[in-house]
Write a structure and sequence with these properties.
Blueprint (H helix, E strand, L loop, with lengths): L17 E4 L7 E4 L26 H13 L3 H4 L11 E2 H14 L7
Antiparallel strand pairs: 1-2, 1-3
Amino acid sequence: MLFTHQFTFFDTQVGERILCRHPFNESKRAYVVPQCVEELLKCYWPGRSGKDREELPSIKLIRERCIKQLGQMRPDHMRRLNPTPYKVSVSAKLYDFIHFLWLNEAPVGELQ
């Protein structure tokens, strides 16, 4: 099954309360109020989507951004020995999308 619906996950604003969920455990959820919102995905290869194509930054800028982002990580997540697990939550919209894809691709058994 081909999923052709255009889906935008970046609809959160600073100070706006959102429901965050564990990607696979439906009972783990919490409301959060973000203090900073950053768009993580940019369209470098639009295909047939009709979206504008972003210019790819130079390898030097990509490297600098990567180093900056790693510098913002908490040290307990980055230590080599016994690192603290990095918890991930997703929006309710992304949770629904993940589970939609998951259920459509999971094989269905047949009882006889």
